[in-house]
């Protein structure tokens, strides 16, 4: 039980780290005045802001692997495991639709109606979990499942460039096509940020990494497993950069920063290295310094949902595009403190609810 708790702790800590990087990205982007946005500080903030989305999707895949491992240990069939994991994916997708409805209502009358159909990160996480749930249905055993998840992640990366350029799904309704390539229509003049290609690939990569990690845990070689994964990540990033430097025009339109499979592989490598850093940090047992991030990680869906209106929305705690770096940093500190307290309150409420339900069920 203690080993299982430790495994969950550093995964939760990594998700909490994703929350922190998300907070600072949104806060500085929303609140900083134009002159502050022209600084190296803001550019660094936005560079860090490239981490949250792949982190959340990758960790959704790792959590999927934890669920599959637990259900397989109970003897459930692959179809039952797929059904449970897909149901969780549909729940997250539904939360994403409700979140879009909330943002549309809070933004009325300025928000365009097309925002109701925007493909946001919650929509993509939910559908990615539905897709990755096919892995335990189609094959059994950690080796086959890891291989299949890795192959699908690579296939998604390779299909992304044509789907965005030369093979756009123009035959589909615009709102459905946005789930594949972000959309390039009159309704969506600026493509939305989180289509399934390439973002679902991070969930499959996380699933593969999680399955391999749990295999190492069962063999009592968790540290070796994390080190091996991070080493594979470094090798993957080096290989991708090497391939990118070769004169091999595989695609008619090549965009390294948006659709390149090489950039996808580099980011997967970075995520695996971050996994090692989080594992090492939690292994040092830094006491209370770890606890707030673990709390945020365990309630990341609630935290994401709540913080948006107070940073970007109508209830923004600071005037948007008007603040100095110092003022925005104070606002960021307030958001972090408030969300940690909310996560703590949620944890205690869940514990009391579980205790009450247990008492009511006793004969």
Q: Could you explain how this protein is built, in words?
A:
The structure is a single chain. With 363 residues, the protein is mainly α. It has a domain of 233 residues. The chain is 74% helix and 0% strand. The N terminus is likely disordered.
* Beta-strand percentage range: under 5%
Number of strands: 0
The residue-averaged pLDDT reads 90
Radius of gyration: 21 Å
Helix fraction?
Answer: over 70%
**Structural class from helices and strands?**
mainly alpha
Shape: globular
Task: Give a quick rundown of the structure.
The chain has 363 residues and is an all-alpha fold. 74% of the residues lie in helices and 0% in strands. Helix 4 (52-73) crosses helix 10 (196-218).
Please describe the structure with a list of short key phrases separated by commas or semicolons.
363 residues; mainly alpha; 0% strand; disordered N terminus
How are the elements arranged and paired?
Elements: H1 2-31, H2 34-37, H3 40-48, H4 52-73, H5 78-107, H6 121-132, H7 134-138, H8 142-164, H9 174-181, H10 196-218, H11 222-244, H12 261-283, H13 291-298, H14 300-311, H15 325-361
């Amino acid at each position: 039980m203690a080993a299982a708790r430790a495994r969950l702790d550093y995964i939760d800590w990594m998700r909490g780290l994703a929350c922190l990087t998300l907070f600072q990205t949104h806060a500085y982007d929303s609140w900083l005045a134009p002159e502050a946005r022209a600084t190296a500080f803001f550019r660094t903030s936005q560079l860090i802001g490239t981490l949250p989305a792949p982190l959340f999707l990758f960790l959704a895949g790792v959590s999927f692997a934890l669920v599959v491992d637990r259900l397989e240990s109970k003897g459930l069939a692959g179809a039952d495991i797929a059904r449970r994991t897909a149901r969780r994916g549909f729940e997250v997708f539904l939360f994403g639709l409700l979140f879009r409805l909330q943002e549309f209502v809070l933004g009325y009358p300025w928000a365009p109606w097309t925002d109701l159909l925007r493909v946001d990160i919650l929509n993509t996480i939910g559908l990615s979990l539905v897709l990755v749930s096919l892995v335990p249905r189609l094959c059994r055993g950690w080796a086959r499942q890891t291989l299949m998840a890795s192959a699908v992640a690579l296939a998604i990366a390779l299909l992304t460039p044509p789907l965005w350029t030369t093979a756009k799904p123009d035959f589909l309704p615009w709102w459905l096509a946005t789930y594949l390539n972000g959309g390039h229509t009159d309704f969506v003049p600026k493509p939305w940020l989180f289509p399934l290609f390439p973002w679902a690939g991070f969930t499959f990569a996380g699933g593969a990494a999680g399955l391999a990690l749990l295999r190492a845990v069962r063999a009592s070689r968790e540290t070796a497993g994390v080190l091996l994964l991070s080493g594979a990540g470094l090798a993957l990033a080096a290989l991708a950069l090497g391939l990118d430097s070769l004169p091999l025009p595989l695609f008619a339109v090549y965009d390294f920063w948006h659709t390149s499979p090489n950039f996808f592989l580099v980011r997967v490598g970075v995520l695996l290295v971050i996994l090692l850093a989080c594992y090492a940090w939690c292994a040092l047992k830094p006491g209370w310094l770890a606890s707030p991030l673990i709390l945020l990680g365990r309630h990341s869906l609630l935290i994401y949902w709540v913080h948006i209106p107070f940073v970007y929305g109508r209830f923004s705690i600071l005037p948007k595009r008007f603040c100095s770096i110092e003022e925005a940093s104070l606002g960021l500190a307030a958001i972090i403190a408030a969300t940690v307290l909310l996560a703590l309150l949620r944890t205690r409420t869940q514990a009391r609810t579980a205790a009450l339900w247990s008492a009511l069920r006793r004969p």
